Amino acid sequence: MNNYSEIIKACLKGNRLAQNRLYQIFADKMYGVCLRYANNEDEAKDILQDGFIKVFTNLKQFNNKGSFEGWIRRIVVNTALEKFRDKKQMFALSMEAECDPNNNHYDHILSELSAKDLLKLIQELSPQYKMVFNLYAIEGYSHKEICDILDIKEGTSKSNLSRAREILKEKVNKQYNVRVK
Q1: DSSP secondary structure, 77-120, as one string
Q2: pLDDT tens per residue across all 181 residues of the chain
Q3: Which residue, 34, 55, 142, 159, shows the most beta carbons closer than 10 Å to its own?
Q4: Cα separation values, 141 from 60, 110, 136, 145, Å
Q5: Are residues 74 and 115 in the same domain?
Q6: Are 171 and 124 in contact (CB under 8 A)?
Q7: How many domains does the chain have?
């Protein structure tokens, strides 16, 4: 189903069945997004619930330009980020290590892992590394955009990404008996 306009119209009229239908269509995909940002499944469920409350509250703002799924995804990601900002878990780390854009040796091994295995490894990252890694490597934001979103310096974003990659590489080496350079 590519056109959600009828469901959206019904949701805007307060139709609970339509709201449930909309939730059912997108909940699994958005739960996957939530899991990448959360520390555990319960936290992911909380983010999902809060995200869908915002979706329904702001549904009238969707202007049918662009992907509806993308619009929902953006709300869910922002909800996850707000959760960590509210908990004051986001903090900038100054590290001497810089991101080496040519160091992609670990990419091959990470591509061999199942999505579930990779998700577990990402969830084990500290909040600041997890946020930068998710926003950069999965959501596709630039370091400049990440700086604006998280209110950190570009160097911090790059070093946090580099450190997250190093931690993931170490975890892969240790847990999967693979040696990644």
Answers
A1: HHHHHHHHHHTT-------S----TT--HHHHHHHHS-HHHHHH
A2: 347 889 999 999 999 999 999 999 999 999 999 998 888 899 999 999 999 999 999 999 998 888 999 999 999 999 988 886 655 443 333 333 333 444 444 455 545 556 677 778 888 898 889 989 989 988 888 999 998 888 889 999 999 999 999 998 888 777 766 555 5
A3: 34
A4: 26, 20, 5, 6
A5: no
A6: yes
A7: 2
Is the residue at 100 inside a domain?
no
Give the predicted TM-score (pTM) of the model: 0.63
User: 3-state secondary structure string, 133-165?
Assistant: HHHHHHCCCCHHHHHHHHCCCHHHHHHHHHHHH
| 8 Å CB contact between 132 and 69 | no
Task: Give the tokens for residue 172.
Answer: 């892969």
Task: Determine the Cα angle at 84 with ends 104 and 90, to 5°.
Answer: 60
| Structural domain contains residue 98 | no
Residues 12 and 81 in one domain: yes
